[in-house]
Design goal:
The structure is a single chain. This protein has about 150 residues and is mostly helical. About 60% of the residues lie in helices and about 5% in strands. The chain is built from eight helices and three strands. The protein has a three-stranded antiparallel beta sheet with strand order 1-3-2. Strand 2 and strand 3 form a beta hairpin. Helix 2 crosses helix 6 and helix 3 crosses helix 4. The chain is globular and about 45 Å long.
Length: about 150
């Protein structure tokens, strides 16, 4: 299935909630993280959906990042169980709708506006722990390695 069809199938809306919503479920936080992921580990600010999901999963805790690195770089340990998070697909939807992303050749890419925001996030004193993990992971996130991790080859 085409990525554009996958992430834009259902209409969506944003509504204010009275109750607390965890930070990683908040659309603005997730979209900012998505833009930063594409800017810091995407090749030319582009990445496959699978790469985005692996990075999102690895950022959830240090153990995930370490298990991925051990599997990819050293062939040690079992293949990590990588969870594809539907909230990241919604973030892709929102960012597409906001014209911060585009999809070309089944790759998610930053638009000019997306690059501007991602560059500001990169320079700002935000997402510092995520930026450190992204730097550690960058070399281990080629599309071949992403495919290997997801398919277990």
């Amino acid at each position: 299935m085409d990525l554009k069809q996958l992430v834009t199938k259902k209409p969506f809306y944003i509504s204010e909630r009275k109750e607390f919503i965890s930070c990683d479920l908040r659309p603005n936080w997730r979209i900012s993280l998505l833009l930063l992921i594409l800017r810091l580990v995407g090749r030319g600010s582009k990445a496959s959906r699978n790469k985005i999901h692996i990075v999102n999963w690895a950022l959830k805790n240090e153990e995930h990042a370490q298990s991925y690195l051990a599997y990819i770089e050293n062939g040690q340990g079992k293949r990590p169980f990588i969870n594809l998070d539907p909230t990241m697909d919604k973030a892709i939807d929102y960012a597409l709708y906001s014209k911060l992303l585009s999809i070309e050749n089944n790759r998610v890419s930053l638009t000019e506006d997306g690059i501007k925001i991602a560059n500001k996030l990169k320079k700002a004193d935000v997402f510092n722990s995520e930026k450190r993990v992204l730097e550690k992971l960058k070399q281990a996130l080629t599309e071949d390695k992403v495919k290997k991790a997801l398919e277990g080859k």
